Amino acid sequence: MDRLQLVNCVQQALRAEGQTLAELAEAASFATALPVVMSELFNGNAEINGNVNKFEGMNPTVIVYDLCQHMVVNIVKQVTMLLGVSLPPLLMVLPCNAAAAFHMFASGKNNGVWATVIRDTQEEIAKGATPVEAFAKVAQERPYFYLVCQPNLTMNGPHLATCPLHPEMTMTILPSYHALQDSATKGVILSSAAELEPVAVEALEAEIGKKVYMAGPQFPGVMWEGHSTIQTHSADDERVVRFLDEMKIKHGSRSVCYLSFGSAFFPLLRPELIRYIVHTLRQANTPFVFAYASGIGPVPEDLLRECEGIENGCLVRFGPQWAVLNHEATSFFITHCGSNSTGEAILAEVPIVSIPFFGDQAQYAALLTEVLHVGIDLKQTKTFQHPDLYNILYDGTVIVGPEAAIKKGDGGGMGKDEGEGRRRDEDTDEEGERDDEPEQRDGTVPFEYEGAGVHLVLHYVDHYDRSILILNNLQS
C-alpha cells in the first residue's frame, strides 16, 4: 500500500435527496475541486487538498479516469497548459464489456448509442425543446436496440422501460463520448476478459482507433483462488445462509434459485415480472433467495408483502452474494447480468437465467446465452414502449408479452417467430417438441440442453396464467 494514496476530491459536504441527485451533486463537487487538486499534483506540492503528499516532487505520468469523470480530460489539459508542463496520456475506464463499449461509442454510421442520442437530442433542441425535455423524449420514443458492426458481435434488447431513466443522468454521462474521442485520451481500460469476446475487442479498437486494455474482472484473491468458505458479516447474511442450509436438508443440493438484480437496478415500472417469477418458482416447489436491493427507487411495498412469509422463500435486501453462489444448495441464478454478478457467477460455476436491464447487461446476457450457451435468456419479459412499432429482437424473436406467450404455448420465448417456440435439437420433431418426451404430470413440456458441464431443464407452462417459466437446474 506504500504505492497508493487516496485523496478526497470534493469541495463541500454533499446534501441531496435520492441516489440520482446525490450522484449529480457528487459529480459537480468533484469537477469544482479537481482543478486545484490537479495543480497541486503537477506542482509536486507537499500537500494535496489538505492531505500530506506521499509523492511530493513527482509529477503524474499517466491519468486514469472513469467514463463518468469525463471532465477530467479538459481540466487536465487546461491545468498542464497553464503550468507549462507536458500533458501525460489519459486512459478512460469503462466498467463494462467490449461489446457494450462498442455499442456506446461507435460512430453514428454504426448506430452507436451516444452518437445517435447526441444527434437526436440536438434535433429536438433545434425544434425548441429544453435539453431535459429533449433527452427525456429521445429516451422514451426512440429505440437504440440495433447495431451495425462486425459479424458475431451479438446484441440483446435490454428491458429499458422496466427501469426509470432520468434524463439528467443521460446528460451527465453523454460527454464521455467526446472525452474518448479527444486526442489526449490514448486508450480505454475495460473490466472484462478478452478471452470471452475477442471479436468485440478487435471491433472496438478498430472503431475508436485507440488501444483497448482488457483488465478483466476485479475480485479479491480468495475468489480467484477458488476459496468458497461461507462467510457472513451481518444478521441478514446469517439468516440467508441458515435458510440455504435448511433448504439443502429439505430439498437437497442444487435445489435453490438465487434471484437478484444487483444493488442499482430493479424493474420498478414492471413489478409484475417479479410476481411471474416468484409465482413460477412456488408452482415448481423451487426454493429461492430473493435479494431486492434497488438503487433507483424503493421497491413497491405490496410486492414485498406478497413475497414475505413464503415457506420456501427467503427475502433480503442485500444478500451475501458470494456466499449464496458458492453454497451447495444453490442451483441457478436469475440475474440482470451486471459485470460483478456475471463475473461472480462464472467463478462460482453457477448457471444463469438472464433478465438484463441497462448498460452492458444485455451484452453479457447475449454472450452467456447465445454465444457460450451456458444460460437462458427470458426473452418474453423484454419491454418495448411501442410494441406496435418495435417488437422483434435481434434474432427474430417476436415479443408478445409473458402472459400472451404462455397462452400461445412458447413460454419464455426461447425460439423465433411462427412455430419455432422451442429450440430444436436432434431429438425434436417439426413442432419443436421431443418425440420421446411425454407430457409432465403438471402440464408442462420440458426443453433440455447441455453446456459447460451443466444440464438445464426448462419447462414451458401452458396452464398457469400468472407464470412465465418453471426452471429446474440439474448438475450432470
UniProtKB/TrEMBL annotation:
Stored InterPro entries: UDP_glucos_trans
Q: Where is the composition biased (Acidic residues)?
A: 427-439
GO MF terms listed in the record are: UDP-glucosyltransferase activity
Q: Coiled-coil regions in this chain?
A: none
| Compositional bias annotation for Basic and acidic residues | 407-426
- Pfam families in the cross-refs: UDPGT (PF00201)
Disordered, as annotated region: 407-445
Organism superkingdom? Eukaryota
Q: Which UniProt keywords apply?
A: Transferase
State the family named in the UniProt similarity comment for this chain: Belongs to the UDP-glycosyltransferase family.
Please give the name of this protein: Uncharacterized protein
